[in-house]
Amino acid sequence: MNGSPVKLAFKLVRDGRSPEYVICDKSLNATFQIEARRLGFNGTEAQVNIELMNLRKQGKLKDCPTRNRKKPDPNRNRYLNAVLNAMRIIERQLGKNVDDVICDPATQSQFDAMIQFLSPGASQFETQYAALSLRKTNQLQPEPIGQIIRSVTSNIIALTELDQRIKEVPERPGVYIFFDDQITQYVGKADKLRHRINQHISTWSYRELIRRIHEGRQSKTFVAYHELPVTLTPKELRAYETELIRSRNPEHNRAGRTLQ
Fold it and tell me: 16, 28, 229, 248: which one has the fewest Cβ atoms less than 10 Å from its Cβ?
């Protein structure tokens, strides 16, 4: 057989679509998986998808130009920040990159579940496709320090539930990120995460924020936290926070304010 079975399968099923489209469209991907195996590729679903992405990155799909382009999703801005935050936390939890997460059905399911928590009702296809598009256009740049210094635990909690769930936050060193469906609001670091986040939720402005959320005048807001190893030095903790500020561009840090 001449050529890669994965490339041949892609040519047979793609209907002019891009590799990213074939990976994210469940029906098309199921047909692609069947064809790849029929043509002799022995591997898992994740390996079939990753091989397709590798072929594209290696320039081996230049003879397969995208002719049937996906239409822009008019709802994209509603879930884009959810995509960014969901992918970032999964990257830190699993030590995988964007392609690996979306190409593997198991981690893809974790991503889908987190998206539904952050942006209920968002399309699985559109959010997966958005994640790959953000990576392709360098809007999901690697965060190297976060890959080197792996989090011990990571989680996301809705601000409206934070009072009741504050004891879930570890009393350990780490970083935390406040964000809503449009922007990253604030990034901070702490020697004791629970104590520092508790300081935020005890303020008047926090209570006012919760009131606006309940009244529908403020987007649903979340806090993500990453517990880091207790052996971390103050310099390493500061570097971790600095990397997050640089990559997430939070509104309050940018303005030189703390989130009260």
Answer: 16
